[in-house]
Amino acid sequence: MKKVLLLSALSLCSFSLLAHAQTPKKADESETLILSDSLSYDDANKTSNFKGNVILTRGLMRLTADDVNLKEDAKGFQHAVATVSPNKKVTIYEERPENYETIHAEGLKATYNGETEVVQLLGQSIVTRSVCGKVVDVLRGDVVRYNSKKGTYSADGGPNSPDRGRVRSIIQARSQVDTAVAECRKRYNGKPMPSNIKKG
Questions:
Q1: How confident is the model over 112-171, as pLDDT tens digits?
Q2: Is the distance from CB of 125 to CB of 156 less than 8 angstroms?
Q3: Other beta carbons within 10 Å of 16
Q4: What integer pLDDT is reported at residue 17 of this predicted model?
Q5: Which residue ranges does the record assign to the Organic solvent tolerance-like N-terminal domain (predicted)?
Q6: Radius of gyration (Cα) for the chain, nearest Å?
Q7: Quick one: pLDDT at residue 24?
Q8: CB–CB of 179/173 below 8 Å?
Q9: Rounded CA separation 133/125 (Å)
């Protein structure tokens, strides 16, 4: 299987739930790595199309999809759409080692707006937050949005909601979250948890 590798070439902020898109590049800012079966790039129209088994990694965030289309607008903002074939889902996995947290998000489609820094999961959307391997929050809906500028989530029910058109939220008590964090802190001797994201 032929693989195409693009390393830090498009300054994509990706679909990271902690999107860093339009800020100046810092010395410690992570590069974007994209693996795919094929890549087509149009410099005149500022578009890139990654096709086939796409794996996008940026720092402690990984996105998987069948296709990822990127476009840069006249203002220099990046916009992206990730899609999959029927019976599959776009997935986003993110680690937050200092808090011993992982985020797993999935949907039939995902979009990213670099100007507003809003990520949308569309269709059968589920976002799960775990602490020390224990699920603490779950948000399910037809559409789930994350605004990284404001640090806010929103969700809508609809025909493609996992729960009969409704939004479903499960939130654990803060005491349970604190207990899970304490367990992990003890397990790792006060150090951040190790990453499970493989690169390259």
A1: 998 998 999 999 999 999 999 999 999 999 999 988 778 788 999 999 999 989 999 999
A2: no
A3: 26
A4: 33
A5: 34-151
A6: 17
A7: 42
A8: no
A9: 21
Q: Which residue has the tokens 């990822």?
A: 68
- Residue from 98, 102, 101, 118 nearest 110 by CA: 118
Cα 61 from Cα 38, distance rounded (Å): 22
Q: Express as a percent the part of the chain with pLDDT over 90.
A: 66
Give pLDDT tens digits for 55-84.
Answer: 988 888 899 999 999 999 999 898 999 999
- Cα separation, 35 vs 32, whole angstroms: 10
Sequence letter at residue 14 = S
CA distance 190 to 7: 33
The 3-class SS string of the chain reads CCCEEEECCCCCCCCCCCCCCCCCCCCCCCCEEEEECEEEEECCCCEEEEEEEEEEEECCEEEEEEEEEEEECCCCCEEEEEECCCCCCEEEEEEEHHHCEEEEEEECEEEEECCCCEEEEEEEEEEEEEECCEEEEEEEEEEEEEECCCCEEEEECCCCCCECCECEEEECCHHHHHHHHHHHHHHCCCCCCCCCCCCC
All structural domains of the chain: 4-187 (2.60.450.10)
